[in-house]
Design a protein that fits this description.
Layout: H1 8-30, H2 32-42, H3 47-74, H4 81-97, H5 103-115, H6 120-152, H7 159-177, H8 179-193, H9 198-217, H10 222-249, H11 256-271, H12 281-292, H13 297-313, H14 315-340
């Protein structure tokens, strides 16, 4: 008998995406004068500043690749930086294009780690630690943005956000630097696993024991932890730099009081998997914060649209080309192994 899976979660996600798109369309039609102004300003944008913004965005991708390379090196694996650059751009394109993310981009990244010889346990640890480092970096930017807005913007209601940012920052530091905490979680999982039916226990226990063995061999000292945290912060910082450089490109004063807070808040909202790459949610929330702190609506909308043109729309075609190149290279490697008589790897895609 075929049992149909419940469709509640996909239906809710589709409805939320439709609502967001509907709100975005309403905002677009109600802000036609600002959009006309934005299109006009694109023809007079400063190319030097725009080029610097593009370089800053490229540095953000580089820091993302360097973060992965550092973590893979800690686990004992050396992966070429160019390979990780292509992988970073490709996974960004997948995340920015497909609904239901980060499922597909994470699966693709996991397969590519394995193609480079990384075992499943280490690959999973690297992916989780990347997320922790990025969360740490974004928490630092959020805290900085809140402190600046409270000190110079007169918006004292943001103090609650500062407390939240400090709490998140502390938790991320603990998770990033304390391998012993990870081992305690695994030991707890082993104890709880005994309560499961035997068929599940037999599947889960070996994986937990492998993770425990791998983590026990890792040595994540203070210098490595600081470097990982700095790379996570730099990834967001250069992306923020892309946004900041757009303002002088449009001959607009940089709204220092609100730009860091607006950026961090919009990226947090964009993480919610409603639309691919936070399409609509990032633009709306970032523009809203900038306008709320006194930036003219037409200047805020224009700056945000140009920033997203570089950091979102430009990444998609480049990333899919990188995805195609990675896929072709992997298939050729699989055919070469088959011709040499070696068994093909399951992760070749």
């Amino acid at each position: 008998m075929h049992i149909r899976r419940p469709l509640t979660r996909p239906v809710i996600r589709i409805l939320l995406a439709a609502i967001v798109v509907g709100i975005l369309l309403i905002l677009l039609f109600s802000s036609r004068s600002e959009l006309v102004f934005a299109l006009h300003r694109l023809s007079t944008i400063g190319l030097r500043w725009t080029l610097l913004a593009g370089i800053s965005e490229a540095m953000s991708v580089l820091c993302y690749a360097l973060l992965q390379r550092k973590l893979l090196a800690i686990t004992g694996y050396r992966v070429n930086l160019w390979s990780l650059l292509g992988l970073s751009i490709a996974t960004d394109a997948i995340a920015d294009s497909l609904p239901g993310e980060p499922v597909f981009s994470s699966a693709f990244r996991f397969r590519q780690y394995q193609r480079h010889g990384v075992d499943a346990t280490n690959a999973a640890w690297v992916m989780i630690t990347v997320l922790v480092a990025l969360a740490l970096g974004l928490s630092i930017l959020l805290l900085l943005g809140v402190l600046i807005s409270v000190s110079f913007g007169g918006h004292h209601q943001s103090e609650e956000l500062a407390v939240l940012a400090i709490i998140v920052l502390g938790l991320m530091l603990i998770v990033l630097t304390r391998i012993s905490l990870w081992l305690r979680v695994i030991r707890l999982g082993l104890r709880l696993n005994r309560l499961l039916p035997q068929r599940f226990e037999q599947r889960i226990t070996p994986a937990l024991l492998r993770a425990q063995r791998v983590l026990a061999e890792l040595h994540l000292g203070i210098p490595s932890s600081l470097l990982i945290g700095l790379l996570g912060l730099a990834e967001w910082g250069f992306d923020l730099g892309c946004l900041i450089l757009i303002f002088p490109a449009l001959d607009v004063r940089v709204p220092w009081v609100s730009v860091i807070l607006g950026y961090a808040a919009s990226q947090i909202i964009g993480v919610i998997p409603i639309t691919p790459g936070g399409l609509g949610t990032i633009e709306g929330s970032l523009s809203g914060v900038l306008i709320a702190f006194g930036t003219a609506a037409r200047h805020a909308i224009t700056s945000v649209l140009v920033y997203r043109l570089i950091s979102y729309w430009l990444i998609i075609p480049i990333g899919w080309l990188a995805f195609l190149a990675i896929t072709i290279t992997a298939r050729r490697a699989g055919r070469d192994r088959s011709a040499a008589g070696d068994p093909p790897k399951a992760c070749d895609a």
